[in-house]
């Protein structure tokens, strides 16, 4: 086949298809875990802020929620995002993917959401491990 791709078709590794090592259904589960992490971080941050015995605890809760979600987004964007220039290689990336899940799960346990955090961290560990790890294909395709 020539180097020309028709619309709707993409060769593996040329940016149009799934990134190397990402399997369809597991990547959907992994993405849902990422969204769940942001939601759990926000709820956990809100509850942590509400624990404080201060007059403006709702304002504090909002600030803590935004800070916790922002921390997760910054870590993810810096080291795990597919287009990040400083994206880590496997298996170190796997550890930085799981670190926010574990940290938020531990904080969630403090505010009574421990089971939510534990289940989310477990599902994320399985989904990220199976969908993105152990990829035998190179990240770039050789020229032909």
TrEMBL record:
InterPro entries: DUF2568
Keywords annotated in UniProt: Membrane, Transmembrane, Transmembrane helix
Entry's transmembrane regions: 28-48, 60-79, 99-128
Entry keyword annotation includes Transmembrane: yes
Superkingdom, natural source: Bacteria
Name listed for the protein in its UniProt record: DUF2568 domain-containing protein
Lineage: Bacteria, Bacillati, Actinomycetota, Actinomycetes, Micrococcales
């Amino acid at each position: 086949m020539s180097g020309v791709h028709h619309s709707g078709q993409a060769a593996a590794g040329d940016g149009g298809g799934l990134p190397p090592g990402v399997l369809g259904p597991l990547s959907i589960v992994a993405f849902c875990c990422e969204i769940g992490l942001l939601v759990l971080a926000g709820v956990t941050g809100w509850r942590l802020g509400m624990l404080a015995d201060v007059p403006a605890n709702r304002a504090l809760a909002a600030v803590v929620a935004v800070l916790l979600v922002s921390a997760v987004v910054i870590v993810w964007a810096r080291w795990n995002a597919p287009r990040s220039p400083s994206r880590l290689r496997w298996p170190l990336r796997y550890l930085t993917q799981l670190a926010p899940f574990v940290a938020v799960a531990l904080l969630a346990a403090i505010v009574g959401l421990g089971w939510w955090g534990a289940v989310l961290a477990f599902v994320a560990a399985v989904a990220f491990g199976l969908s993105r790890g152990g990829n035998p294909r190179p990240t770039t395709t050789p020229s032909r």
